Amino acid sequence: MRGGHLADRRALITGAGSGLGAAIAGVFAREGARLVLVDRNDTGLTQVAGKLGDAVSHTICADLSDASVCDKIVQEAVATFGGLDILVNNAAILHFALSPDVTPEMWDKTLAVNLSAPFHLIRSALPHLLAACGNVVNIASSGAIIGTAYTTAYSTAKAGLIHMTKCLAMEYARQPIRINAVAPGAMRTNIGTDLSIPDAADRDLMARYSGLRPAVDPIEVAELVAFVASPRGSAVHGACLSVDGGVTAG
Ligand SMILES: NC(=O)c1ccc[n+]([C@@H]2O[C@H](COP(=O)([O-])OP(=O)(O)OC[C@H]3O[C@@H](n4cnc5c(N)ncnc54)[C@H](O)[C@@H]3O)[C@@H](O)[C@H]2O)c1
Questions:
Q1: Is residue 186 in contact with ligand 1, taking CB distance under 6 Å?
Q2: Which of 127, 129, 142, 160 could pair with 244 as two cysteines, CB 3.0-4.6 Å apart?
Q3: How far is the CA of 83 from the centre of ligand 1 (A)?
Q4: What is the Cα–Cα distance from 101 to 65, expressed in whole angstroms?
Q5: pLDDT digit string (tens) for 218-249?
Q6: Measured distance CA(62)–CA(164) in Å, rounded
Q7: Is the minimum distance from the CB of 162 to ligand 1 under 6 angstroms?
Q8: Is any atom of ligand 1 closer than 6 Å to the C-beta of 190?
């Protein structure tokens, strides 16, 4: 028996090969969880798993933009653990673009990874999470709460993720499962590394929602995700909790 607030909880975390997903995996491991980690980036996955040692039971390199992999991922996690207590939908992609430049392919891929994959993973995981009185944490964004220019596909998908969280929370209100979202503000992670801001973008406009405070540390978000996923969060259901330094306050 491992100690901690997530002692021996069995968790499936997507996008765990870098940034916030890696931070969530680290905090979950410290709190005693057993982990199956998913990412399309095999190198990142291997590095994170190497750091976390025997807390990581299995890694899965998969591209979540393909809906057909979602059920296989859940079945692989359940086969590894013999059940499932926690699903963290963290993987996402982001492009900055003026809306006329958003191609149908960019739109479809963003919605596939950021919105459809979380739903397909939840749908496959539901029977196992219900059996374990488990829970889901969906990683949303401050961009889902306030309108943010040049991220329409990303922010629309994230807003859908928050509403999906609330709809499922109501559908399962009388059953032993909790479904929540956590909405971070800007963090310095790989999602921003290759981002190019369009030349025609209005930077003064973007500064309005860039935050009055420093960027959020992924560890701070991971600590809240671990709280919500643990028995300490037992009254939290259908919520979207912001960790954004106040950027959505007004
Ligand atoms: N960084 C920020 O400023 C910020 C702000 C708000 C919300 N978020 C959210 O935090 C979460 C984590 O992002 P991050 O900032 O750590 O970025 P990140 O790029 O470091 O991590 C995202 C991970 O998801 C993986 N991924 C992306 N597409 C995938 C796919 N198709 N299949 C499998 N894996 C895939 C990437 O390989 C990467 O490891 C995301 O949901 C993001 O929307 C980030």
A1: yes
A2: 142
A3: 26
A4: 21
A5: 999 999 999 999 999 999 999 999 999 999 99
A6: 23
A7: no
A8: yes
Mean pLDDT for 26-51 is: 98
Structure-token pair, residue 197: 């801001």
CB burial string 28-48: b at 16+ within 10 A, e below: bbbbbbbbbbbbbbeebbeeb
Ligand 1: centre distance to CA 89 (Å): 10
pLDDT digits (tens, 9 = 90+) for 86-129: 999 999 999 999 999 999 999 999 999 999 999 999 999 999 99
Query: Quick one: which atom of ligand 1 is closest to the CA of 17?
Result: 39
| Per-domain boundaries in the chain | 10-242
The C-alpha torsion from 205 through 209 and 215 to 217, rounded to 10°, is -140
- 10-242 fold: Rossmann fold (3.40.50)
Question: What beta strand segments (E) does the chain contain?
Answer: 10-14, 34-39, 56-61, 86-89, 135-139, 178-184, 240-243
Contact 77, 124 (CB under 8 A): no
Provide the 10 A C-beta neighbour count for residue 145.
21
